[in-house]
Design goal:
Number of strands: 5
Number of helices: 9
Helix content: 40-55%
CATH architecture: 3-Layer(aba) Sandwich
CATH topology: Rossmann fold
Strand order of the largest sheet: 2-3-1-4-5
Bound molecules: 2'-deoxycytidine-5'-monophosphate
CATH superfamily: P-loop containing nucleotide triphosphate hydrolases
Structural class: alpha/beta
Order of helices and strands: EHEHHHHEHEHHEH
Shape: globular
Length: 202
């Protein structure tokens, strides 16, 4: 039996945390689709062509430990606007979504393009200042030397680019349940997401 939970939203809204916790709770597999774009974007920083990098991507590439930097995030957002890059990554994501035993995917276009028939669609947002504070804490906690202003600027630039692109822009699916986590703790956000999924499961 397959059951797909599609989670979309802007950068650092809490999608990843909610997706991991839902996957743990229901025993589903989890795919952070941002990693596909980050791994592709990172290769272009070495001079590799973006389309070739996406076509040659392997599961090993997703395990690289330097994918979380703001530089790689920007590169990911830039190459994510190239239709051929997105095309190269579709089959892998769709196969993952339909695997037996259930799957949670988080990204920007999961409910709209990758899994339009997902059993559950969530669109998770938070104000940009809250998102910047959360991402800043995460990055500095991992030893990155970044200012809050730089993190905010990075998020705003990426959100603008990700929302404005012609192919698979960031936007909620018509049937997505929207969750604004600005004033929620992580546990409250997870509880709200769990509640939505349980209702859909009947
Ligand atoms: O979720 P993230 O911050 O790791 O994603 C990095 C970039 O990858 C993001 O700015 C846009 C792109 N992306 C995308 O276009 N589609 C997805 N499904 C996931 C990420």
């Amino acid at each position: 039996m397959s059951f797909t939970i599609a989670i979309d939203g802007p950068a650092a809204a809490g999608k990843g945390t909610v997706a991991r916790r839902l996957a743990d709770h229901f025993g589903f597999a989890h795919l952070d689709t941002g990693l596909l774009y980050r791994a592709t974007g990172r290769r272009t920083l070495d001079g590799t062509d973006a389309i070739e990098a996406a076509q040659a991507l392997t599961a090993e590439d997703l395990k690289a430990d330097n994918l979380r930097t703001p530089e790689v995030a920007q590169a990911a957002s830039r190459i994510a606007a190239v239709p051929e890059v997105r095309q190269a990554l579709i089959d892998f994501q769709r196969a993952f979504a339909r695997r037996a035993g259930g799957a949670v995917l988080d990204g920007r276009d999961i409910g709209t393009v990758i899994c339009p028939d997902a059993e559950v669609k969530l669109f998770i947002t938070a104000s940009d200042t809250v998102r910047a504070q959360r991402r800043h804490a995460e990055l500095t906690g991992n030893g990155h030397d970044v200012t809050l202003e730089d993190v905010l600027e990075d998020l705003r630039q990426r959100d603008a680019r990700d929302s404005a692109r012609a192919t698979a822009p960031l936007k909620p699916a018509d049937d997505a349940v929207q969750l604004d986590t600005s004033l929620m703790s992580i546990d409250q956000a997870i509880e709200a997401a769990l509640d939505t999924v349980r209702k859909r499961m009947g």
